[in-house]
Amino acid sequence: xxxAVRSVVVIGAVLLAGAVGCSPSATxxxxxxxxxxxxxxxxxxxxxxxxIPVGAGPRASYTAQAQPTPGSCHYRYTAAKQPLPDAACTxxxxxxxxxxxxxxxxxxxxxxxxxxxxxxVNITGKEKAANAASxxxxxxxxxxEYDHLISLQLGGDPNDPRNLWVEPPSPDHVPGKGPNxxxxxxxxxxxxAICKNQVTLAAAQQAIATDWTTAEAKLGIKAAASDGPVxxx
Length: 233
Description:
Layout: H1 3-22, E1 76-77, E2 83-84, H2 121-135, E3 145-148, E4 164-167, H3 183-195, H4 201-210, H5 215-219
Antiparallel strand pairs: 1-2, 3-4
């Protein structure tokens, strides 16, 4: 082999090694309590600038899902002191059963949809306790909501741990009165906008997963008198 050919081979090998070393890992190296399904590309979800993960979707029966390691998740707060989840622990997750093509037979179906796919309390109760430890939440459990980041009425996955978090009380909450979550009203407004074809399903999901307090402004929608009752999620 001539010296010129050897030089080309060596340079090519160096460039190839560099490219491999800079490639993002496809698998998130999870700790003992992390969700094994989390990937590097989706770890931040909408808030982190990544693609929102897709969950398993509705199930005939549910099992309690493992939660992140205790103390590994940290709340974020807006300037108005409204709580937001840790984007790495709770990036949100969508249901594969709900797409733009299926909203008429799922979330916009007359007669309701979410009650038919909601996991039972004996499952979510266990998850809520474990998730409270993940976030280090030590307040009264009755004042915190085990909340779908992307709500069921917006096509969020019912029981994917990436889509659920113990949401602490908002600033105007009255202790001992149970959850008082202004996020629920935002979710209902977005649901109405989707079903009226004012916004796309994907846009609404991205907006609520990024920051529920700015979702309506980002989508350019306002609450309407016809939105109906607020659904807690």
